[in-house]
Queue: 3 jobs
Job 1
Amino acid sequence: MSGHSKWNNIKRKKEKTDAQKGKIFTRLGREIAMAVRSGGPDPTVNSRLRDAIAKAKASNMPSESIQRSIKKAAGEDTGSNYEVINYEGYGPSGVAVIVEAYTDNRNRTAGDIRHIFDKYGGNLGTTGCVSFLFDRKGQIIIEKDPSIDEDELMMMALDAGAEDFSAEDEYYEILTDPDDFSRVYDALEKKGLSFASAEVTMVPRTTTELTDPEVIEKMEKLIDRLEDHDDVQNVWHNWEQD
């Protein structure tokens, strides 16, 4: 079920990406920069950077832009005061939401995030209030294509170290342990496969369905406003979208 919602998220973000590529690439560049500052500019020894590069490539970020982000971050003062903070809360009707932010002012960011939750029928909770409903996993989404043999893809993924493989109506979902994500990604990329999405993410264990149109509208606006905030890097939730 997590993949079903993921596919809807991908389609929704693709529509936004067409009009906001610059902002999307800025966010990906920031993720790459944070990875470089935490573990250095060599992706062969910095697993966080490897994962960030895979995510950027799957989002069609140009290779030159990826390398530019790495070089820029490597040349900057590593004493940057940006920190990664996760905020947890509930959307309308109890949908679990985790917001990952990169911020140099946690008071400002916390106030902004709280305001967005309150405005759209949710509430910001305490650390740990919803994270137990998610598992951290590597997730690769591949759009279905007549040229892709399902059984062959499944065997390639499992042989490379994937934990799970599932086929849905429009896509294939491959899940990995976070530590195995880059290895599985590299193995499939070398086979010439392209990815609709590839990242280490938070996969919900259970999902929440919404049926009231007004509640659905509020949830959509909550996600959109959170994702549009300059400090927000990722938004994860357990809303099962149709």
Job 2
Amino acid sequence: MWRTSQGERVLTGGEAAAFKAGLSDLVEDLAEWGDDQTTGVEAFDALSYGQRLALLVDLAGALLNPSVPPPSHTSANEATVHAVYRQLFTLIEVELDSNTPATNARQLVRTACFERGLEALSETHVDLDAWQGAVESLSDQVLWDRDFEDGTMFLDAAPESLNRDEVGVGGDYFAAVSRELRDAEIEPTLVRLRQLAQ
């Protein structure tokens, strides 16, 4: 379960399928590149390989399984969810750059948008900005905002100099420490993530 901008819920149908596609691709990139893998989501990329895998397995479980209690909203948690959607957009970029008839990622995003009542682009649409907008719209169905992008403003400032209420986040939103996997937990976590992404 996840406290989304659209209420407490899990992803189902096309929305779940699109999320799983991004998750699967992100997991395989992480498995290949480890700490060197980047998504462009700074708050996610700054984490260690073990932290990223731990967050992915915890949050994918919450987003896809109604029996999992909703996790707290932290910068790392929300950045991790957004990183999955960023990876989904990367799949679309690859499809369009390769100029192949394969439209799997676009079909998934189109179906998910249609099911959520969002603008559904034609799967043959080639405007990359429009596809980015579609993926962002799906991300917005889960995330309330992009507060995780403001983390750098808290890094060097004295705690008393910043009014977190004005920013709209709790005191532990940026400070919460993500758990780190032990070496022995890496492979089982990758197996579990691959299962979740099926």
Job 3
Amino acid sequence: MACPYFIPTEKFLEGAWPHRSRLPLGDGWRGLCTASADQQLVPTDDQLRDCCNLGYARQCRRIPDPHRFDAVRFSVVRDREQRVHICYVLEASYRPGTHGMLEYDAASRCWTAPHPDPRIQTMAACYLQAYLERRQSGFADATSPQNPA
């Protein structure tokens, strides 16, 4: 799960994750913390590794109180005919909360069903980018639900 207050901006290539493709956003990312309504902060490398890319927001001392969600998950549920469908789930207290589907049209290179929150949409775009890079390089599992045999 990634922190819902995190806005990824670039890949965090120096991150020492053993299985980068298993990270919630499909890879490690650098970015900005938007938990404070006043300012965007640049997290440290440790915060990026332990919280922003891999953790519940409520573990972070910056999380606003009250807050609606602690984490966000993404999953490609369908990749067929130039359309990629991504399921998202926003969690609160380790329970699913808001959820829905996003859709990307690879032929026109645009989102036909984006998320209304720009932070969540940016995370979805990063997740999609990592997924498409894996798929293009042949690392996507050919028997997964995203790529039915």
